[in-house]
Amino acid sequence: MITIRGAGLAGLTTALVLLRRGAAVTLYDRAEGIGAASVARFAGGMLAPWCEAESAEPEVLELGREAAAFWREVTPVTERGTLVLAAGRDRADLTQFARRSEGHETLDADRIAALEPALAGRFRTGLFFGQEAHLDPRQALFDLAAKVTGLGGILRCGETGPAQVDLDCTGMAARLRGLRPVRGEMAILRCPDVAISRTLRLLHPRAPLYLVPRGAGLYMIGATSVESSSTRPPSLRSIADLLGAAYAVHPGFAEASVEDIGAGLRPAFADNLPRLTHQGGTLYLNGLYRHGFLLAPAMAGQAARLLLGETEDETDRQRQPA
């Protein structure tokens, strides 16, 4: 029996990989319900390795290439690419983004309007990353839990578990050297009068903002690069920035209702890359930073290999789901 503390994104994903390889798994989580204490519920759910490579280490692109294929087996995935845009005053940032990334095509105003008719006449140029995708993080956590229990995994909510477990996936609660919090802030808007079908990234002087359609007139707008350990709700200034970005995308968002506002602390190391660390007889999977849904499948595979004592070849042979 492999024991895991933390039934958030990393813990559930690793449990699923282990179960598919024939292991018995029990997860413990202090929260009373799935996702209740998981920072992943504030995520954008973007499976965007080519976009992330603009500012991330090369490993992010390498580890994230197969994420969409993993998630298709778990939860609905919208595969319509990512559109990167900038207001006129920030167009130089778009040029820089293009130089630092790959896997995109440059669009003019007509092409932007063809992809997203609601944006006709609003942006002169943009970048389109056609291979990228997104998912609904909260739905994905529930679907992950259902897959885990469906394969015989034991999920114990409201319990911290034994003093020592095989795998710790508790994020900022883990006592790991060099771990720091990066605050992510988000708002969910309901605006059925605006029809946007793919993830938009709006380049912004302080930090990129993103708008992710959730379906049924819902949109998530967020920012992920706020260096802070505060757990308080987003400030008025932060919310004004988020809502202002939505309005910059389309003035129809002025009539949107705000369905939810939240913030979470995402664990990161100095290089913003995830790590697997052995400490005191426990393996720690941590440091997913803002790349949680993108990197969790690959990191879960590495963790499973270590926990099961598999060789690289054995892991590759068993990579396909049962």
Descriptive key words:
single chain, 322 residues, alpha/beta, 8-stranded mixed β-sheet, 10 helices, 30% helix, 27% strand
Helix-strand blueprint:
Elements (H helix, E strand, L loop, with lengths): L1 E4 L3 H12 L4 E5 L16 E2 L1 H4 L5 H7 L2 H6 L9 E5 L4 H10 L4 E4 H7 L9 E5 L3 E2 L2 H14 L3 E4 L9 E2 L11 E11 L8 E5 L5 E7 L2 E9 L9 H14 L7 E12 L6 E5 L2 E5 L5 H17 L3 H6 L5
Parallel strand pairs: 1-2, 1-9, 2-8, 4-11, 9-16
Antiparallel strand pairs: 3-7, 4-6, 5-6, 10-13, 10-14, 11-12, 12-13, 15-16
Write structural notes for this entry.
By secondary structure, the protein is an alpha/beta fold. The protein has 2 domains: 2-68 and 134-174 and 271-317, FAD/NAD(P)-binding domain (3-Layer(bba) Sandwich), CATH 3.50.50.60; 82-130 and 180-268, D-Amino Acid Oxidase, Chain A, domain 2. 30% of the residues lie in helices and 27% in strands. It has 10 helices and 16 strands. The strands form 3 sheets. Strands 5-6-4-11-12-13-10-14 form an 8-stranded mixed sheet, with helices on both faces. It has a 6-stranded mixed sheet with strand order 8-2-1-9-16-15, covered by helices on one side. Helix 1 (9-20) runs parallel beside helix 7 and helix 1 packs across helix 9.
